[in-house]
Amino acid sequence: MFAFSPLRPPLPRDLAASLRPHTLAKSRVLPLGEPWKALVPGGGLRRGATVVVEAPAGQGGFSLALSLLTASSANGHWAGVVGVDDPGVLAMAELGVDLRRVLFVPRPRGEWAESAADLLDGVDVLIVRPPSRASHGVARNVMDRVRERGTVLIVLTEPGAAWPLPPDLSFVITESRWVTSSRLDARYLRVRIAGRGEAARAGEHVVVLPNRRGRAAAT
Amino acid sequence: MERLLALWIEALATDEADGSTLRDSLALLDALESWCPFSDLVRLGLYVLPLRGPSRFFGGEDEVMKMASATVRDVTGHDAHLGVADGLFCAELAAREQRVVRVGATDDFRRAQPLEVLGNKELATTCRRLGLYTVGSFADLAAARVGERFSTQALELHRVARGELEELPGQRDPRLRARLDHLRGQRATRTEQLGLFGDRGAGDDRAFAAAHRVRRRLGADALLVASLRGGRVPEDRAALVPWGSPIVEEKTEAPWPGRIRSPSPATSLAHPVAVRLHDEHDLPVLLSARGLLSAEPATLLLTHYARRKVGWYAGPWPLVERWWVLGRRRAYLQVVLALGEAVLLVAESERWWLVGIYD
After folding, report:
1. Model-level pTM greater than 0.80?
2. Best mutation site among A20, A69, A73, A86 for testing chain B: the one with the most B CBs within 10 Å?
3. Could you report the predicted ipTM of this complex, rounded to two decimals?
4. A219 touches chain B (CB under 8 A)
5. CB pair distance less than 8 Å for A101 and B214
6. What is the pLDDT of residues A138-181, one digit of tens each?
7. CB-CB contact of B176 with B18 (8 Å)
8. Whether A119 and B203 lie within 8 Å, measured CB to CB
9. B132-139: which pairs have CB atoms within 8 A and are 24 or more residues apart?
10. Concatenated DSSP letters for A1-15?
């Protein structure tokens, strides 16, 4: 049956009761879960901010970005993911992201910035992975629109294809190591976190991401 | 009588008023059934799995027991007491004692049990007065004598004691199946495309509008949402589908049904990519019919030119699809490459596919 159909069966009562409230006060800061709450200046993601997550390919950058969604997702906020092909839905669920409120545009066909613009008004947090180094002009444009709309933008970059403008917050993965037994158990990430205009200097922290259950955690 | 693996989980034995026990029990049953199709929830807290078939496929009873323990822990966070014996009655007793009864030794095991295990206090008391303390001594009484001396219920217990009945009266909860089916039925109505629920609030409307903007610009299949089809093991049916597409209830064969334990890879390829895995002599590594690797993997060839040294690997684990269908031997391998990236591979005899990247 069509998802939009009025003939859709009503939700079972216990499920309906568990859904989050839809009208959310527009807070200035979106919440962060473990382990970021204690590590990020301000303990949350300021609306309108641009966050850069930099990591070498395959070293946990996407997982880290997803882990920044967890708390706001659980609080009923919508999220978008643009330009990430084959996102692991199970991994997202394990991290604690509420998949009921995520929109995916895995293949924006060369129009990642336009797709981001399309989604800006509909989501509170947006993860984008530009296919190559973004130009100064495009970056400026996106950051301005994000600030205007009050969305949090999370940009995934790799060393050598950095975001051309200083972000409001950055996470740089400097080291990534798996703990293994008879299987992959957990990954330790060394992350340098820096906030723009923050009194605190950049801090380096080691986090577990993912742990055995697929969640992000402090060490 | 069939050789069974019993799982006794104390924490799931009490029926909580909020329905959590039943929900958790169903989740665990689904998870067990995903790799052992004839798993049975006998009563709350007690699961039973056939052992012979799975042992043959997974390479031994120990392996099956390990998988069962892990499944219980992963799904519920609790530990299970495991036991193996012939027939349901003895399998549960074995689980209580955390014992694996040797093949052929179930009779001795049963006979040595104290009478209390038959679950009838009166019977046990009467037997003790007669100098009978074990199930075996009770079993040795002639059936006619039992009829005289004891109640009619005792006759049934006598048959259990003699190994003629494999299930103790009251061991199974007769209403449980209906309760589980009812719960499954409720879950089936949740076959919803995620992102579209009940009463829509302002936030949802804005998200819808955003979705429409993308679709108008890029086409209907450019904007996707997660879809969890309700049913046996929802995790196995996690997929991305175009927003607003009709929910199709047919049994779509996802390329690699089945699950391995968390953590799952952050990149999960909808269309697995063929790769090659070579040993130190640069020869292909094969998956044998018994689910073993022909050699130690040394190099992963993503393309003809992109080679990555294998730093560590684990597996192969049989894919938990329909193991009883012969000839579809596939297995998972987790590999960490020299630079620290971890990937998930699937093998089918000599062919390998990349199915996940732990990014």
Report:
1. no
2. A86
3. 0.86
4. no
5. no
6. 999 999 999 999 999 999 999 999 999 999 999 999 999 999 98
7. no
8. no
9. B135/B110, B135/B111, B135/B161, B136/B110, B136/B111, B136/B112, B136/B161, B139/B111, B139/B163
10. --TT-TTSPPPPHHH
